[in-house]
Every structure is written in structure tokens, then in C-alpha cells.
Amino acid sequence: xxxxxxxxxxxxxxxxxxxxxxxxxxxxxxxxxxxxxxxxxxxxxxxxxxxxxxxxxxxxxxxxxxxxxxxxxxxxxxxxxxxxxxxxxxxxxxxxxxxxxxxxxxxxxxxxxxxxxxxxxxxxxxxxxxxxxxxxxxxxxxxxxxxxxxxxxxxxxxxxxxxxxxxxxxxxxxxxxxxxxxxxxxxxxxxxxxxxxxxxxxxxxxxxxxxxxxxxxxxxxxxxxxxxxxxxxxxxxxxxxxxxxxxxxxxxxxxxxxxxxxxxxxxxxxxxxxxxxxxxxxxxxxxxxxxxxxxxxxxxxxxxxxxxxxxxxxxxxxxxxxxxxxxxxxxxxxxxxxxxxxxxxxxxxxxxxxxxxxxxxxxxxxxxxxxxxxxxxxxxxxxxxxxxxxxxxxxxxxxxxxxxxxxxxxxxxxxxxxxxxxxxxxxxxxxxxxxxxxxxxxxxxxxxxxxxxxxxxxxxxxxxxxxxxxxxxxxxxxxxxxxxxxxxxxxxxx
Length: 494
Prior knowledge:
494 residues; mainly alpha; two-stranded antiparallel ribbon; 20 helices; 76% helix
């Protein structure tokens, strides 16, 4: 069982997608089965997190072929932390989607595609093979294309074309990079590549591979200057799907970015990490400026996906275990907080039929529970103490000062102030003031919406109250990532 444990996170959603197809004419039956499968996936990922919390790396060799010749799946603490967070995002956003619309309007392919998306996400988080990572990304992105197709009308589809075209370009670069790596090294196993590349030194091919990796995962994760597709496309889909994409797609891009730059590529590549510092600062600042300029809840929150990504890339660019620990903490925090904020914005849209800040007001008086949820999560996103966002940013700023990167820390602090300003913009206009328009309850009432968003708020509060426990795990994950020898031994043997 333990030998095949690394396979289960990919196998379970794949089987779930197939089961959903057999229930295509029974949407209510689909929802019941989906609830059970998502709950099982959340329990499985939590068990895997427990197994890997003390440094164990779970490895599965598909077909019995040992590395580097066969396909290898490996789960370390970083993978399991991301798997657990991803499972929580899938569970809560899908449950929110059940209350978002009536059963007769739910497309019969929605749940199978969500499970297929989770298959690609989980495979991305568990594979130890470079080409298999490309395959996982394609499964994930193809599912997202299909979800865009069934969840948007003809007018909104135009804004989605940029998302599809940009990601297709990114996939082409990914494939070209895989071919370059294989042509130069003769294999694609990540542990084996890490050993080989360490012996190559500062050869030009390593710089070329590093820059191409930076570009392709810059596109996937929404970094400057490749982020333009994200804030235009995500607001076009229902809030549950937008929140799902926010909590998974860009974070998987970040995961792959960290895995390749820390585990495989050397730490002394000329100019690359200096470039990362500059790009992270531009991503933070321009993302938050875009958020401030928007006048819709979804528009503001989707620009913040970009802005917050800058903090995580900055942690990678600092290239120390302490900074990376803060970056992983911020990624986990952001997956929970950002997902819940978009879902709360979705409740405003359901009840007021708009998220334009010029047209909505007084939501707090009608539904105070969501006003409390939004205030807590907005404060956390801005990094106010003692919320979870504060701890990650505080540790990142402290490490930046230790490294004397004062300019980049200054940009990060300014970005936090603008983040707070944009969150207060939503709070004062949408939640406070006199009631405008007509409030309508969602088709299935509020219970599912309160439960799904409330779960995320509770997890965010838990991360704040027990920040030391979470930071202990992220520190272990960061040190394990920097300890390449342990990764080599787990996959290649002694």
C-alpha cells in the first residue's frame, strides 16, 4: 500500500471523472457522488501529509521500472502540503458551485471536467519526471479550456481566447524545453537531471534551459510580463470556477517553478536570480495597481492573484531556506484566503446580480456573516497582524533585510498598503452604506455557501493562531527542497 501511495492522488480523481460520466443524466446523483469523492481525496491528502511530515519521501515506480528509465511519482513534504491545500480548494469550490445554481442549469460535463482538472493538478504535484510534468499540465489546461467553453456565453468567450492562446504558447515552450533537456542530458527524470546538471557547471545550455523555464512557468503562474491573460479571463466564469482556478492553476505553476529551480537547476546561474528579483517586484507592484484601478469585485480580486504571486516569486529569488519557507507559507495562505474572497464575491453577485462597486452597497446589513468572513480574509490578504498573511510576509521581509535587498522589501511593503486600500474599497462600497437594489437569495439558499466559505475562513484563522506549527512544516519542506541528496537517494537509491 505504501509503495503505491504516491499513485493514489492521481488515480482517485481519474476514476471519479469516469464515474461522473456514467451519471451524466442525473445531476443530483453526480453531486452526491462528487461530494463523497472530494471528501475521500481530502482525507487521503491529509494522510499523505501525516506520512511525509517527518521527512519521508513516498516514491512509486510505475510498471516496476526503476528511475531514471521509467515514470516515477514522488511525494515529499512540499508536495503533500500543496496536495492537501489543493484538495481543500476543490472540495469547497465545488460545494459552493452546488449552491450557485439549480440542478437543471448545471452542465452534465462540469463535474467530470473538474475531476479531470484535479487529475492533472495532482499529477503535476507528484510527478518526478520532466516530460510527465508536461503531460500533467496539458491534462490540467485542457480541462480548464473545456470548463471555460461550457461556463461562458458567446460574449464572454472573446476574453477567454487570450487565456487559451497564451497557454498554448506556454505549452509549446514547455515541449521545446523538454526536447532541449532530453537532447542534452539523455533523460528526463528530475533526480537524475539534478545530478547531471550539477556536473555541467555554468555551460551556456544551462542558462538557456533556465531562461526558457522562467518564461514558460512565468506564463503558467501569471508573472510579469505574462500576466495579462489572467485578470481578463478569470472574471468571465462563475465564481466557483474562478475561485477554483485561482487556488490551483497559478499555484501549480508556482510549484513547478520552485521544484525545477530549487531541485534541478544550480544556484549559481548567471543573471537568472537577479532577473527573478526584478520580475517579482514588477509583478507585485503592477498587479496591485491593476487591482486599485478596477471597479468590480472580481476584477480587483483577480488582479490580486497576480500581485500576491510576486511575493512568492520573491521568496524563490532570495534563494535561502528561510525565504523559501516564507514563500511556501504564503502560497498555502493565498490558496485558502484568495479562494474564499472570490467565493464571498460570488455571494454578492448571486444576491445582488452585480459586483460593480458603483451599483452595490449595504450587503453587510443583509448578510452579516459574509461581511465578517470578507473582513477577516481581506485583512489576512493585506498582511495585517495577527492574521496568517502577516506571518508569511513578516518572515519574508525579515529575510530580505538580512540579505540587504532593501529596494525589493520596500516595493513589497508598498504593495501591501495598496492591497489594504483596494480591500477597503470593496468593504466600504459593497458591504457598508445604505442598501441599493433588490436582494435575492440563491436558488438553494445560503447553507452551502456559508459552509464552503466558512471552512476556508476557519483554516485561515487556524493558520494564524497556530502559525508556529504551520511554519515548522514549511521550514521542513524548504530545507528538504534544498537538500538535493535526500531527493536523489529517495528516487535513485544509494
